[in-house]
Design a protein that fits this description.
Pfam families: Peptidase_S9, Peptidase_S9_N. Belongs to the peptidase S9A family. About 20% of the residues lie in helices and about 30% in strands. The strands form 9 sheets. It has an 8-stranded mixed β-sheet with strand order 32-33-35-34-36-37-38-39, with helices on both faces. The protein has 12 helices and 39 strands.
Length: about 700
Amino acid sequence: MKIRHLSIAGFVSLMSLQGGVSMAASNTDSIKPPVAATSQWQEVRHGETVTDPYRWLHKKEDPKVIDYLKAENAYTDAMTAHVKPLADKLFQETRARMKETDLSVPVRRGNYYYYNRFEAGKQYPFFCRRPAAANGQDDVNAKEEIMLDGNALAEGQKFMGMGGTKISPDANLIAYWVDYTGYRQFRLQVKDLRSGKVLSDSVERVTSVAWAADNQTLFYTQEDPVTKRSDRLFRLKLGSQPEQVYYEPVEQFALEVGTTKDRAFVIVHAQSTDTTEDWAIPADKPTTAMRSVLGRQTGHRYDTDSHNGQFLIRTNRNARNFRLVSAPVATPDEAHWTTIAEHQNDGLITGYEVFEHYLAVAEKSQALNRIRIYDFAKKSWKTIAFDDQVYLAMNTGTPEYRSGTMRINYQSPVTPSTVMEVDLASGQRKVLKQQEVLGGYDASRYEARRIWVTARDGVRVPAWAVMKKGVELNGKAPLLLYAYGSYGISMEPSFSLARLSLLDRGVIYVQAHIRGGTEMGEHWHDDGMLMKKKNTFYDFIDVAEYLTKNGWTSRDRLIIEGGSAGGLLMGAVTNMRPDLFKAVHAAVPFVDVMNTMMDASLPLTTGEYLEWGNPNEKAAYDYMRSYSPYDNLEKKAYPAMLVTTGLNDSQVMYWEPAKYVAKLRTLKTDNNPLLLKMNMDAGHGGASGRYDALKETAFNFAWMLDQWGIKE
């Protein structure tokens, strides 16, 4: 299910847009921003006449729109010319820490070990494999086979995004799907790994893929070209025409297809915010009609795997934080359930991975991950525990069903990404590889801390901070506060090479686990959505207040950041408390909530009624209208703002941030910078190449450092 989950070539004439930019000016006070034209547009909604003078910016095909966006980019370049040397320095710092020629830890699937490999100077990975040794171990001297070269796929393209790859059961074919615009519109292709030839079979707008056991049949889901809802399931026998297997008629649901770990079934998964349904197709009988596992009942969310002739089902029926049950394939209804993992009030079951003899269950409690292993034969549990205050530990996927070990990734804000192998029988861990940080990185120079903030309604909100040791909490430290808080997505305390450049300059980084995610369980999401959405904004403000009142920073040293639905957060809290923040970075921000959610033809809109509310209903309309950032801009002083986005964004339309900036310029009473930076060749995730992505991050960080008055 999709969610809203980031050099000027020449002078751009702005005269036709009623504004101007002096590109040669050295003093930014003399540089004038572009002035967006206005037009007449209005609509009556629930008796309210709504006007939108910047509605013309919705017309991407209009050259005037592109001219205006280029003018905004030219203005931003002129206003930030003085930070370019610092941005270049930050980019080089991060690149110097990065091991540019590297490969992932090979993982076994069948008779091969698979891995991705990077080469210095190249933007994209090579997708590789090598044969396993006779004893099944990885033979590093075995001949490498490059299955796909991401750099070759990207040749001549301004953007290349790999949607995914799937290897056929016999390992002779690879299905892969690629996007060349940033609009997340992927084209499926199949390559014969024996001959190296790409087959003629090709399909547009593919979102997920699964192989049947015959190595000739692919199941795939396809999205609607307008709404981008994955609403159709197809079966494709290679060399033949695709056959539609199922159409999902309910607009709130999207489809995804995959296979069970033991490869016994193809599973079709339909998901909305609060309800799911699974269907099973025997993988060795791909033309068999799909059969619903547990049907569809509003409020019931479940997902399915299989093991030893049984379905394994993660279900929230009578279990808000989910439980795990098994049931016979022939009779999987609730009357035949056997509980494997009980429901826990203080622990959310976020997922599971099944093996022939073991089951690994991923859980989250008190905003931290843990993994428990179940022995099917002994019916016993063991927990993989970590002692750090702040960390991330998660299953990374072990393709081999019969494996006696599993792969996990461990990292923390001060510990680089570490791949571990866990013995499923003993629980013992072995480090296979830790991300190398070049240049003499010393983790002992930094520290991470847990923070608990009591919100205005008495709820305790978790957060974490990372900083260089020795930074005094005297209110003078520059601080970057980040949060998301939507869709039940948990933010994780990960390690970042780029962030080190901020920490080394005395910046404190804080991430707040505000309501709207599931860091504290399913109720955390429930309490930050629909008619409780404002809890998300209140939590963020309360964390910011806590940080300023307790010496972590001060209002003139506090910068905030969020992207996508986190960009909605940025817009909302800036409207509510503009006095609280020094500066704001809003990335691909969902700020024009009402115009988007009132247009059912737009991608994601109808599927998100269950997250935000259906504005066609008066009560929901009034509530959403009361916090929509674009609709609540006022004539007052605002913090400095950098708004970044992509022209080909399919999750948050480019015109949302463009209109937001245009309107805010007419209302703000301060002299703080308001900048729009639009990547004209990318979408929701920003630049696709690894170096280009680093440059975007370096620019954003350089702009923040400049706001803090840090010049080097």
